[in-house]
Structures
1.
Amino acid sequence: MKVIDSVKITQNACFDFRKKGLTVGFVPTMGALHEGHLSLIRQSIRDNDKTVVSIFVNPKQFGKNEDLSYYPRPINKDLYLCRKAGVDIVFSPCLKDMYAKDFRTKVSVEELGDSLCGEVRPGHFIGVATVVVKLFNIVGPDIAYFGQKDAQQAAVIKQLIKDLDFSVKLKVMPIVRENDGLALSSRNVYLNKQQRKDALILSQSLELAKGLVKNGTSSTKNIVGLIKKNINSVSSAKIDYVEIVQKDSLIPLKRVNNNAMLLLAVWIGKTRLIDNAILN
Amino acid sequence: MKVIDSVKITQNACFDFRKKGLTVGFVPTMGALHEGHLSLIRQSIRDNDKTVVSIFVNPKQFGKNEDLSYYPRPINKDLYLCRKAGVDIVFSPCLKDMYAKDFRTKVSVEELGDSLCGEVRPGHFIGVATVVVKLFNIVGPDIAYFGQKDAQQAAVIKQLIKDLDFSVKLKVMPIVRENDGLALSSRNVYLNKQQRKDALILSQSLELAKGLVKNGTSSTKNIVGLIKKNINSVSSAKIDYVEIVQKDSLIPLKRVNNNAMLLLAVWIGKTRLIDNAILN
């Protein structure tokens, strides 16, 4: 496994793969790898001749008062996990090589990036879209792997690939959960013992909503109302948003249909967690 | 020469070129080809195994009250010129294939795209940057050719290539002029006989400024003042802007240096013309 910190050297190495007719799978990450990331990496290794993983905590997708400075960066453990999984290249660039002093370009996906997480994290999806365009241009993958946990991110990237004519196939992989239901996230390490228990309210709420739909409730207003009540029963929980939207377009729905997706963002203490599920 | 209107087919054809190890040169145009465009096309044919020319009047780079509806579209003549020059593929997409109904993505190059032409044509360079990213992703060129006449556009594209890590080399080719000095432009066809004469005030002003610098004037304020006076002596001329800036960064200068560039935008009747020159 090669670990490369240079944009140019990674670009040339990936160019050589394609020149040889090898297919390239790409898993962009911010590191602090968990089983969710590893499920993407393993799928990429199954699908492609070569797999490239990027590890880059992208400052442009963090807001001013967010957790950029203390976001976990266990680089040695990450490299060990990548090596063990069979990754070919880990691209781990330094900040200056990604964003020169005179960096000026922004990629935005209107509407899709403005609601939900984009509303409480303004500029977040511009940061995501911009770095993903850069990474696609550096790696030139055949297939890129993203996690369903970041559902809005997946929708933004899907639109961006289509709009900008990237010849990249997108594979969005299912959410990986702890045995008790908590969706894996690099931010789960922030939770103390009590908060870790309280955090179950997210996945429990998804199950509750699925149950309501199964039993015939289709008014999204009613479902959201019950879910909010359920979350508010946990004292350490503070709701950021609870919304039922159309998958991909993220348009809010009045009635649950086959592609209705419940999206949650909830603060547990000082940790903001997200989760989602298709309801039908 | 192949004329292709489909994004996917063009993308596949260009992919096949690269797969065979052939180099691809790319000349993006809005058609109405003149000797300026042809100088880019000929350079591309000299430099590369294959040359792709796009002909697409991009609505996203026109303002509401601009000349989108009557911009010249002499497609048969354009195809004839491309064929005669030895172009391999003309990519001439229809609007729907470039911009689906749910198109949502914007690429912006901050600051560089906001001053000069960007100030009087808000959104213009977002339209340019967005379509160029699309075209680069469709064609995947080794070298892309742009004209120096659109100096600000060239600066925006240069920054975009660098910021977004496109592995595309940019070649900016010199302005081609009529014998009497008028810079070639597809918009010159709008000029009547008298306006055609009046339009010489642009290139004459550039020569005047060069002469002033040669004779020791270095205050850009003084030069701009004299140039404005000169242009205003022509009754059909209305100044849009006259500015002396640093090449590439487009930062306004107080004193002329080695990379000082004079940029002009002048209305001659209802036709907006631009021209520029390095002063030293």
Note: The longest strand of chain B covers residues 237-246.
2.
Amino acid sequence: MTTASLIAPTIDDIRAAQKRIHGAVERTPTRHSDTLSRITGADVHLKFENLQYTASFKERGALNKLLTLSEAEQKSGVAAMSAGNHAQGVAYHAGRLGIPATIVMPEGTPFTKVKHTKDFGARVVVEGATLTEATARALQIARDEGLTFVHPYDDPAVIAGQGVAALELLDEVPDLDLVVAPVGGGGLLSGTAVAVKGVRPAARVVGAEPAAADDAARSFHEGGLVPMTDPATLADGLRAQLSERTFAHIRRYADDIVTVSEDEIVLAMRALWEALKVVVEPSAAVAYAAIRAGKTQSRGLKVGVILTGGNVDLDRLPWAANLP
Amino acid sequence: MTTASLIAPTIDDIRAAQKRIHGAVERTPTRHSDTLSRITGADVHLKFENLQYTASFKERGALNKLLTLSEAEQKSGVAAMSAGNHAQGVAYHAGRLGIPATIVMPEGTPFTKVKHTKDFGARVVVEGATLTEATARALQIARDEGLTFVHPYDDPAVIAGQGVAALELLDEVPDLDLVVAPVGGGGLLSGTAVAVKGVRPAARVVGAEPAAADDAARSFHEGGLVPMTDPATLADGLRAQLSERTFAHIRRYADDIVTVSEDEIVLAMRALWEALKVVVEPSAAVAYAAIRAGKTQSRGLKVGVILTGGNVDLDRLPWAANLP
């Protein structure tokens, strides 16, 4: 495939996704924060994707993909791999739509995440020591059983769905100078970058990534895809690596990718809880961490931040004294 | 004073307070919760007063009081006593308005609460082993220095301000069958009851109180003020006792007061965090705890719940294994 053929979705695809998923996912609130603005010297507006029903933006892409399947494909069912939010997004909407769903979750996935996914009606297979192994297993099940594999990010329909959050954000705050989103596999950042450049070309789009999982930052700055499988970061939603497709989008549409340390993530997460009184997961704090740590050149600018999710184990908060 | 003379504020006073404080406090969001509705069998609508700037409804009453002072009184300054949210509410708005404020906080008040209050420009005096002792000290300072004492609840202007939250809630969801609010000193419940009965007389108003601090429930059911000073409950915002004034309002306008155990408070608090992805303090979970525990006869009804505040020590969450 050429790079050009990898550039899907376009802004029109994201607009179509917006219509397609309308009413079945939350139009989450956008709020300005005086406190975070004072701390950072930027004018900070936050998009609360943690307030989706399954508490993350992942529903958007999953649902858009499910709704673009043929009737026969919907009837046969879907397979997916995820240790968390994508699993719940696929399971919830597949269950709602009556589409059979099989979700492979890696060994070591917390019991409550497995339970939530099962509660939505999905068949859950816990297998694979790593994301890579679990993905291989899910692909095998999909082949063996004739299921459509719903990739967490390497799919134009999924990327288009994720981009809808940025359309809503710009609808609420049209004159943003900068939009910052976390990057793991790159689905959200790809959709966000296409959406922002399509609606407001003057705005910059910056991805924020844990330094401990910096394949996207390295790929972006070195100009070629740098592989990195299953890195260790507290931001468990960002352990995936870019695909050729997401890399092509990010290379073309994003302006920069910056990295933050694990400590910066924890401090930002706690600051968000304290200042906004919201529960966000470590991955969701990475974008604000980058702004807070001065990595995004955002002083004096009107900045939009996507708070991606709120699924966190309340018994194991990263600042608690009893952490292992 | 006769009981009749104690009935102030009226609904007109609350409407006047609404105009007076408009724009200087948040019109906090109201949200429906599918999850909590499914759990409780009620149609649950929540008012997020934890999203006020100082993270509690207390700002409303404090500001309304400050704005009803004469110019001379404002110039002389105010005194208040509070271990938490009232302190921040008074300090923040006094600071904003250029009114000198002295806040007495009891010994043992967490350092961060003292610091926040000082950061708003207030003079903080840490004195008194109990709320009662600290109140006595604050009254003495007010007398000695010619300051106006801003009571946390035993004041018509404060009660009127607190009632504005219920006006906003009914504005968003006009056909509520039931409104549940926590009760400590009774300021919020008094204002809420007057507001609800003034706007929608058909709706019931129920106060929810920790069983470990049940002076309001006992007073309500026994028909006379039952004193109880400084009880021990996790819901630290609800340790105050009713005054003659709040008791008179609650007796006349509230339909019931129910109690919940400490365990029920912790379970409700955690459920709110998990389902809504918001940070609420133990006191703010008491109203939902009563619904969740089946104390409010709310099955099948459209219920409004005031989530009063979000100031909680993230290092000492009540479900954490490392609690002392």
Note: Residues 37 and 43 of chain B are 5 Å apart (CA to CA).
